[in-house]
Amino acid sequence: MESNISAKEVNKTAILLIATLATFLTPFMGTSLIIALPTIANDLAVNAILLSWISTAYILTSAMFAVPFGKIADIYGMKKIFNYGIVILTISYYNQGSSGYCQCHDICNRTGHYNISISS
After folding, report:
1. What pLDDT, on a 0 to 100 scale, did the predictor assign at position 11?
2. What is the value of pTM for the model shown?
3. In three state form, how does the secondary structure of 67-105 look?
4. Is the pLDDT of residue 112 over 80?
5. How far is the first Cα of the chain from the last one, in angstroms, to the nearest whole number?
6. Under 8 Å between Cβ of 49 and 102
7. Domain-embedded: residue 89
8. How far apart are CA 120 and CA 118, in angstroms?
9. Domain containing residue 30
10. b/e for 15-31, b at 16 or more Cβ within 10 A?
11. How far apart are CA 82 and CA 12, in angstroms?
12. Is 36 among the domain residues?
């Protein structure tokens, strides 16, 4: 007997590429944030204490939301949640780059890290 392959053939190379890029996204954004901290401090007139919270917020929000969004992805579908996460992540990082003051930057930063958890 022949086994039937579903109507949609899975492109394993595309799946591997997307999974690799999504896995690369979290450490890349963490590293780019650390590199950008001196520029953020100069441009937004941020003191050292607030500056340290920017990097701490990245770690906390990424770790805190990883398990709950894993469960949500199991319930509603991984592809759907992953796509929502990438879209919201892109919007929040665009807003973060165009913000002119630290509070807006911090809010967009936390939203971005929240969505890193969705995408991971």
Report:
1. 81
2. 0.62
3. HHHHHHHHHHCHHHHHHHHHHHHHHHHHHHHHCCCHHHH
4. no
5. 39
6. no
7. yes
8. 6
9. 25-119
10. eeeeeeeeeebbeebbe
11. 17
12. yes
- Find tokens 């590199």 and name the residue: 35
Domain assignment present for 9: no
1/78 Cα distance (integer angstroms) = 33
User: What is the widest separation between alpha-carbon atoms in the chain?
Assistant: 71
Domain count, the chain: 1
What pLDDT sits at residue 1?
Answer: 47
Q: Is 77 left (phi over 0), alpha (psi -120 to 50) or beta?
A: left
DSSP state of 8: S
Helical pair 78-98 and 102-119, crossing angle rounded to 10 deg: 160
Q: Is residue 56 in a domain? A: yes
- pLDDT tens digits for range 54-97: 788 777 877 888 888 889 889 999 888 888 888 887 787 777 77
- How far is it, in rounded angstroms, from Cα 85 to Cα 50? 27
Q: Does pLDDT of 118 surpass 70?
A: no
Look at residues 91, 83, 92 and name the one whose alpha carbon lies nearest to residue 118: 83
